[in-house]
Amino acid sequence: DVVRIVEGVSGRVPMRMALRLRFDYGHVVPWVRRVGQDLVAVAGPDSVWLRTAVPTHGEDLTTVAEFEVA
Questions:
Q1: Which of 15, 36, 38, 64 registers the highest number of CB atoms within 10 A of its CB?
Q2: Does any domain span residue 25?
Q3: Range of the domain at 63
Q4: In the beta sheet, which residues pair with residue 67?
Q5: Within a domain: residue 52?
Q6: What's the chain's average pLDDT?
Q7: Are 67 and 54 in contact (CB under 8 A)?
Q8: Nearest residue to 38 (alpha-carbon basis) of 15, 63, 60
Q9: Residue 23 within any structural domain of the chain
Q10: Among residues 5, 7, 40, which one has the least CA distance to residue 23?
Q11: DSSP codes, the chain
């Protein structure tokens, strides 16, 4: 598991998250689909699950999210 918690100390900061998953040392672009609120990226027997509280969307083979930390 990899967990990242972003916490704002003061003010408001716009953030952009870009997740570009690749398997097999960067050679394989996974098939990405939604399962409930999660995203799952699958390439052969390998998979990665993304669970986040902010909305995501696909953009040029990349999963992106834009949000504000306050």
A1: 64
A2: yes
A3: 13-69
A4: 15
A5: yes
A6: 95
A7: yes
A8: 63
A9: yes
A10: 40
A11: --------SSS-EEEEEEE---BTTTTBPPEEEEETTEEEEEETTEEEEE--SS--EEETTEEEEEEEE-
Q: What is the pLDDT of residues 6-44, one digit of tens each?
A: 889 999 999 999 999 999 999 999 999 999 999 999 999
> How many residues does the structure list for the chain?
70
Number of domains observed in the structure of the chain:
1
Q: Which two tokens stand for residue 41?
A: 């990226």
Q: Which residue has the tokens 């003061």?
A: 10
Distance between CA atoms of 11 and 23, rounded to whole angstroms? 38
Query: Is residue 50 assigned to a domain?
Result: yes
6 Cβ neighbours under 8 A, 6+ residues apart: 15, 69
